[in-house]
Amino acid sequence: MPKHPLITLVQNKLLLSSLAEKYGTPLYIYDKEQLVHNIQRLNSILKKYFKSFHICYAVKANNNPHLLKTLKKAVPTLGADCSSPGEIHIAGQNGFEGNDCIYTGNYESPEDLKCALDFGAHINLDDIQSFHRLQKIGLPNSISFRLNPGFGKGAFAQITTGGEDSKFGVPHYDIVHAYELAKNAGVRQFGIQCMTGSGVLDSNYFPNLMIEMLKTVKKLKDQLNIDMNFISMGGGFGIPYTEDDFPLNFDEVFAGVAKNFHAYFNQRQEKFPALWIEPGKSVVGDSAILLTRVTGKKESYKSYIGMDAGMETLMRPALYGAYHRIYKVGSADAPKNTSVDITGRICENTDRLATNRDFPHVEEGDLLAVMDVGAYGFSMSHQFCTRPRSAEILLDGETASVIRKRETIQDIFRQCYD
After folding, report:
1. For residue 357, what is the enclosing H or E element?
2. 7-29+285-416: CATH homologous superfamily?
3. pLDDT by residue (tens digit) across 234-268?
4. 32-280 is a CATH 3.40.50.300 domain
5. For the whole model, what pTM was predicted?
């Protein structure tokens, strides 16, 4: 397996100890070099295979404004994929123009839709009823619908967003009707989007998904004479969370997507739309570690390592049973001589960052690093048991800058008083 890109950082005990001393723990630490590498790699590969393409970073994965600025500076054409007024706000505050962004909500309120319309984002509707709500507010020149093709794929059932059990998207049997309504209402420009799940590591999945999307594109052209300005595959590109996972070969992924994409439009001699993607996890996921300190050890029916980071700091393991590599700082290669559950201090039995994990010997006060927490780490953190949220820092080499101050107990209750 390839070495984890941040393993050198984990082995730098002197640096991480100094950061823990200065900024406290738990602490989210982002590596600027890895973040920039990830977005520029995607951009370069897409440029290799498509004349017209657009990347919209999925703000839901991590909304820190300093990270948004870093990504935008690295790829100036970058847009934002937003799913709430809050995400529209922070994108707009950090240099993302509305026309470069896509808004994909679900069960949107009129206020949500008006926010997206006023921002000038490309509105990607989740449902025919969403279109009817939007009509009452105003219609943009361009609309897309989110297709649910009847199948999906994700690392967990909970993050599979296509198929008959998914709450997302327009069913394939209703999709022509959705576009017909929009066209008859006066919409003249169209795209189509299909996001069927997250954390996918199968390189063949995305070329095959494009084939299914093009079947719908053909129906819309043949039945309604609609040409697409863009075709968005959404995101869903996975990263290797476990020691046994292999990273996606993005060159292979987009070579396959391009082959099917170009073959279809060349054969039909139709106008080529732009390819859009909306990556989140593959951009920020492996750019961060969570630095945490051992607060206690316990021998009971099982062996436990307690940390000052728990499910309130990193929700993914409790929410999906997600796996994150965890290393002892400075000793990533230490022998794993005991089986432990690694837990936080929350009053829930689901508060486990790892279960039955082979792990090296640790003592109270030791530092641990939880890997691959850049996506859906801080953005899903919360204040259960009245635990303030962590600080975040950005590392540029060994130079650290605070990009979010540590929350205080007083901050939690600030809005409760006049």
Report:
1. strand 352-359
2. Lyase, Ornithine Decarboxylase; Chain A, domain 1 (2.40.37.10)
3. 999 999 999 899 999 999 999 999 999 999 999 98
4. no
5. 0.95
